[in-house]
């Protein structure tokens, strides 16, 4: 029997849900934005920082890509999301504490792998809760909260890293924030037992149809976002030539998050009201392409600020409907967490590919102009594939 939603969710539950997602995102993106790049520079120097960052993030993303569907399948088998949320958070916090003391490449990679593996647990649980608990006519709104909370987590993690400082203090502060922000949902959410089909990991199959096209579009637009973020610190210092690049990363992240948050939440509400999803994906892809093209062609700080606004607006338009689309096209609701774990590979695989793609382009194949023009092209490919989602308005 498939779990059914219990009616409309209240604002208090939505708030606790958003806080939990902010905590998970802070644990992820605080390190990616500031802490990992600065740690790589300390360990490898200016000549080796890009390669070391690419290596560490690639290993972490590879682990993440495997971990998310495994957490989801375990959640379906247990018939409960809470144990997955708690266990994954514990592992992720342990990874952050390992990073706080890491003074070698091996220890740095180990810490980041633990963070990626662990935080995929609460991510899988939170994604599944949308299908478990939220009715169809609220999934645009709550799905937008899922996405907006992630980008708020980016700003929180980045702000903590800048305010507290790089190295151990920054990692420890993030390690405290992750479980603190997730506590409200654990207290407030009254989970009902979930009876679902028992699924073996060996039985997971790649689904076709609408889910496959939604997966590919999600992958492409997440790759756009990952390519914008992965070397932002180095782009600002080495190409734009700003002083105190870490502070500028924070400024641009605030700009990005502000517009993404406003557009994401407003878009989610409007998509529920209008009962339309595809138009938001189309608008997001076009605006993301425009913003990244500006970064490529005019790398001066006033234009980069405008580009950050556009990237925020475009990303917000997409995340407004991302989870609503995925939960709508799930091939089998009885394996909801498992298949959402497969869907989340489309969010984690770009983290693996982004540094692998970016490093050779930045160092030998044309630099940041080529990198960001390629990023714009990925957004336009996602736009071209959108008509394949025929089941959606």
TrEMBL record:
InterPro entries: MFS, MFS_dom, MFS_trans_sf. Its main location: membrane. Residues 1-393 form the Major facilitator superfamily (MFS) profile domain. It is a multi-pass membrane protein. Keywords: Membrane, Transmembrane, Transmembrane helix. It is found in: Cell membrane. Signal peptide: none annotated. The chain crosses the membrane at residues 12-31, 51-71, 83-102, 108-130, 142-164, 170-190, 211-234, 246-267, 279-298, 304-325, 337-358, 370-389. The keyword Transport does not apply. The keyword Transmembrane applies. This is MFS transporter. It comes from Actinoplanes sandaracinus. The lineage of its organism: Bacteria, Bacillati, Actinomycetota, Actinomycetes, Micromonosporales.
């Amino acid at each position: 029997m498939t779990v059914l939603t219990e009616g409309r969710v209240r604002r208090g539950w939505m708030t606790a849900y958003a806080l939990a997602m902010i905590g998970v995102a802070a644990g992820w993106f605080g390190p990616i934005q500031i802490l990992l790049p600065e740690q790589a520079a300390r360990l490898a120097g200016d000549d080796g920082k890009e390669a070391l960052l690419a290596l560490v993030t690639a290993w972490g993303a590879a682990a993440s890509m495997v971990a998310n569907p495994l957490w989801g399948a375990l959640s379906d088998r247990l018939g409960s999301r809470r144990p997955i949320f708690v266990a994954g958070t514990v592992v992720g916090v342990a990874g952050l504490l390992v990073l706080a003391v890491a003074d070698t490449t091996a220890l740095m990679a180990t810490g980041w792998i633990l963070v990626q593996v662990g935080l995929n647990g609460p991510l899988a649980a939170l994604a599944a809760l949308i299908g478990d608990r939220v009715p169809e006519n609220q999934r645009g709104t709550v799905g937008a909260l899922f996405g907006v909370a992630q980008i708020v987590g980016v700003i929180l993690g980045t702000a903590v890293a800048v305010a507290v400082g790089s190295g151990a203090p920054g990692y420890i502060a993030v390690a405290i924030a992750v479980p603190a922000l997730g506590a409200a949902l654990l207290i407030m959410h009254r989970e009902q037992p979930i009876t679902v089909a028992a699924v073996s990991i060996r039985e997971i199959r790649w689904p076709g149809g609408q889910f496959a096209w939604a997966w590919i579009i999600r992958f492409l637009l997440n790759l756009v976002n990952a390519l914008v973020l992965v070397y932002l610190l180095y782009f600002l210092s080495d190409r734009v030539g700003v002083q105190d690049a870490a502070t500028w990363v924070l400024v641009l992240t605030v700009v990005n998050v502000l517009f993404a948050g406003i557009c994401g939440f407003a878009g989610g509400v409007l998509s529920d009201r209008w009962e339309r999803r595809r138009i938001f994906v189309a608008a997001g892809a076009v605006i993301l392409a425009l913003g990244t093209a500006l970064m490529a062609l005019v790398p001066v700080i006033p234009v980069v600020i405008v580009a950050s606004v556009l990237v925020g607006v475009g990303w917000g338009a997409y995340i407004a409907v991302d989870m609503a689309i995925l939960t709508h096209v799930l091939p089998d609701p009885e394996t909801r967490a498992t298949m959402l774990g497969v869907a989340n590979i489309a969010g984690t695989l770009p983290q693996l590919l982004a540094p692998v793609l970016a490093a050779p382009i930045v160092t030998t194949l044309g630099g940041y102009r080529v990198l960001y023009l390629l990023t714009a092209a990925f957004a336009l490919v996602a736009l071209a594939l959108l008509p394949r989602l025929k089941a959606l308005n």
